[in-house]
Design goal:
heterodimer, A: alpha/beta, Rossmann fold, 2 domains, four-stranded antiparallel beta sheet, 20% strand, B: Beta-Lactamase, Helix Hairpins, Heat Shock Protein 90, seven-stranded mixed beta sheet, 9 helices, 19% strand, rod-shaped
Chain lengths: 263, 454
């Protein structure tokens, strides 16, 4: 499976260096959710038992507590109980549209973040509307890694503080003057690079998949044919990590990127 | 059974209905003619009766008997009736036995029933009769039986029997003949259609070259069958392509895993192989995702997400997105979007379409080449043009490239899903835009659509 790495990598940052051909593989066996002080509870509403079992197994492996509901009614009841921190809802449930469940829950002031799984629907306005609310959606078929990364992102919503200055280690981003510095070195960024760096700094130490970056920074939800994100990230990395400095932007092969303060 | 079968055929029923209508028409016509004849004859008889009654009544009383007898004598067809009655109702002369009460006094022409006596025989007859009151008392009755009319009716009846029966038989025979002919043709068509349903798509309906509506229909259906055959063949081709494009990475994955299982000496080696296998699986998954996406766009007839889209911004954004990729590949990339123009459409899909065109251009342009992305106005049309200095597309392939999985043979070895242009084509179709792929020195792709008001 392609999902073992998130937790593993959070545990072993020094092994992430891109120059290493096979980063951190030895340390992968369950470091656990060391950054979450309390176990996060996930409510999974999914009618397909097989899919549900896979998702549950993976999330439990990563230290989540998972509550599985096989029907929309059961799911809604569990959501009302309000014990979960995040909810995963399959759109195609027997008899109901998953979105209807979310709408009902929202009306009843159940406000946990939601990740919607949809079979199709990239051009669906209702799903698009979801994103505006901070929730997220994934189109099937998806890699479980992508699912986990998004759950993590939903759980660790970036602090929406009013600070006009973002800091990660020696890296500083001034949102007012639109300037960036690493230590004393000024970094000259193009507007899109600035947005990319801002997004990453707000989510330091989190695995950000290519799809997430493309959606959030470029605002497009499709799979680009070329390695667009990699190329843009490469440019940003050359600007952020000078040859003599400890790298801060780490790429995780095939999976995504993490911004981390140097050790 | 066959005999019963044609009676159920439409042609036969229509023929029957037509002959029925025809016969009804004839009957109505004859009926009308008879009614007319009857009314004319009645008028005529009444006038004659009146004239004679007046003539006889105007005679001296002793002359009347003679006049009446003379009149009654000249009667070859035995239609004349007449009677002279005394005031007390006693018959003085004539062949009417008794004077019915309704004919006492001056009575205008009317239908009456009289008893005719002739040489001892009595016969009740329906007649037209008039009566005249005589000055010295008594009544003169002159009547005429409707024998002539009955005779005419009889003739008409005979004519109808002799004419209509053969006509009916003839039309029945024609109906049977026509319906058997139509039945044969329909059976032939049914057989062919059944073969087509069974999958024999080469089969065509028979035509006779007679240009009758049936032939025309058959030709039209054949035309349609031709279209369907082409589509089905193409679909089969697509299926083969999908199978092929999925099999290649999957085969690689299988070989990798098999070898790793036998050869891997330690966990690290196994992981490396698994990673490689995952790349292959991801590629297969990407193909499936792209296919689903195309069919999603093709089947969504949703236009409610359409807004006015500023194309210049969109083009500049695509330019910004691909500029680093082109630079990495050492391809000169020029973006010009001077024409400010709006189109009505889905911004995200249009972005995806243009991005795909640029993606293709950059991918197929060799190092040191040049890609131009430009937005032009051509009259009322907004045109997004992507030119490159790549190998171009042979003229005979320029239509094929928008087909799913089509990849020019020359580019088989380049990475890609072979789905990019069919995605663009699907998006263009959804918007009612045109997509033109032509070969200049390199490849020129043009996406053109109607400008919307700003």
């Amino acid at each position: 499976m392609m999902l073992e790495t998130v937790a593993a990598l959070t545990a072993a940052p020094e092994a992430l260096d891109q120059s290493e051909p096979d980063p951190g593989r030895e340390t992968e066996s369950h470091a656990g959710p060391d950054e979450r002080s309390v176990m996060s509870r996930v409510l999974l509403i999914e009618d397909d038992a097989e899919t549900a079992r896979e998702i549950v197994a993976e999330l439990v492996d990563r230290g989540f507590e998972v509550d599985w509901a096989a029907t929309g009614i059961e799911g809604l009841d569990k959501a009302r109980a309000g014990e979960a921190d995040v909810m995963i809802v399959d759109r195609l449930l027997p008899g109901v549209d998953g979105l209807a469940i979310i709408e009902t829950a929202r009306r009843e002031r159940v406000c946990m973040p939601v990740l919607v799984l949809s079979a199709l629907g990239a051009v669906d306005d209702r799903v698009r509307g979801l994103r505006a609310g901070g929730d997220d959606y994934l189109t099937k078929p998806f890699a479980i890694l992508e699912l986990v990364a998004r759950i993590e992102a939903l759980l660790r919503r970036p602090s929406e503080n009013r600070d006009t200055m973002l800091r990660v280690g020696p890296l500083e981003l001034d949102l007012l003057s639109r300037t960036a510095k690493r230590g004393d070195r000024a970094i000259d960024l193009l507007p899109r690079e600035f947005r990319l760096l801002e997004y990453m700094m707000r989510r330091k130490d989190q695995l950000l998949t290519r799809a997430m970056l493309f959606e959030e920074v470029w605002n497009y939800k499709f799979v680009p044919q070329s390695n667009l994100v990699d190329v843009h990230m490469g440019r940003l990395r050359r600007k952020v990590d000078a040859p003599n400095e400890q790298p801060m932007i780490h790429s995780i092969r095939r999976e995504g990127f993490i911004l981390r303060a140097p050790a | 059974m066959r005999l019963l079968e044609f009676t159920r055929s439409t042609t036969f029923r229509w023929t029957l209905a037509a002959s029925g209508a025809f016969i009804l028409c004839i009957l109505v016509m004859f009926g009308f003619i008879l009614a007319q004849a009857h009314s004319y004859m009645t008028t005529d008889v009444d006038a004659l009766n009146n004239e004679i009654a007046n003539a006889i009544a105007s005679h001296e009383p002793e002359q009347r008997i003679l006049g009446l007898e003379q009149y009654l004598r000249a009667d070859p067809h035995h239609v004349k009736l007449g009677g002279l009655f005394a005031a007390d109702g006693r018959r003085i002369a004539g062949n009417v036995e008794t004077l019915p009460p309704m004919l006492r006094g001056d009575v205008a022409a009317q239908l009456a029933s009289l008893i005719k006596v002739e040489g001892g025989a009595r016969e009740q007859q329906a007649v037209r009769a008039v009566a005249r009151a005589l000055p010295e008392g008594g009544t003169l009755v002159i009547a005429r039986s409707d024998y002539e009319f009955t005779w005419i009716v009889h003739i008409v009846e005979r004519a109808l029997t002799l004419g209509l029966l053969p006509a009916l038989c003839l039309s029945l025979a024609a109906g049977v003949f026509l319906s058997i002919r139509a039945q044969r043709r329909i059976e032939e068509v049914n057989r062919k259609v059944q073969r087509i349903v069974d999958g024999e798509l080469r089969e065509r309906l028979p035509t006779r070259g007679t240009n009758d509506p049936f032939d025309e229909l058959a030709r039209l259906v054949n035309c349609m069958l031709g279209e369907i055959e082409v589509l089905v063949r193409r679909l089969q081709g697509v299926g083969d392509d999908i199978a092929h494009d999925l099999r290649t990475p999957l085969t690689r994955v299988r070989v990798l895993l098999e070898r790793a299982r036998q050869k891997a000496g330690n966990l690290d080696e196994l992981r490396r192989s698994v990673d490689q296998a995952l790349v292959g699986l991801d590629q297969s998954l990407a193909i499936i995702t792209a296919l689903l996406r195309i069919s999603e766009i093709e089947h969504s007839r949703r236009m409610d997400g359409f807004r006015n889209v500023a194309l210049a911004d969109l083009v500049r954004e695509v330019g910004e997105l691909y500029e680093p990729i082109a630079e990495d590949k050492k391809v000169d990339f020029a973006v010009s979007a001077d024409a400010e123009t709006n189109v009505h459409g889905d911004r995200d899909l249009l972005f995806e379409a243009i991005a795909n065109l640029v993606d293709n251009a950059v991918k197929f342009t060799p190092q040191g080449g040049r890609v131009e992305l430009s937005l032009l106005r051509n009259g009322n049309e907004a045109v997004v043009r992507v030119c490159d200095t790549g190998p171009g597309i042979p003229a005979d392939e320029s239509e094929l490239v928008t087909r799913r999985f089509y990849r020019s043979d020359k580019s088989r070895r380049d990475p890609g899903l072979g789905l990019g242009l069919s995605l663009v084509s699907a998006i263009a179709k959804l918007h009612g835009f045109s997509l033109n792929i032509s070969s200049g020195p390199g490849c020129v792709a043009e996406l053109a659509g109607q400008s919307a008001a700003a």
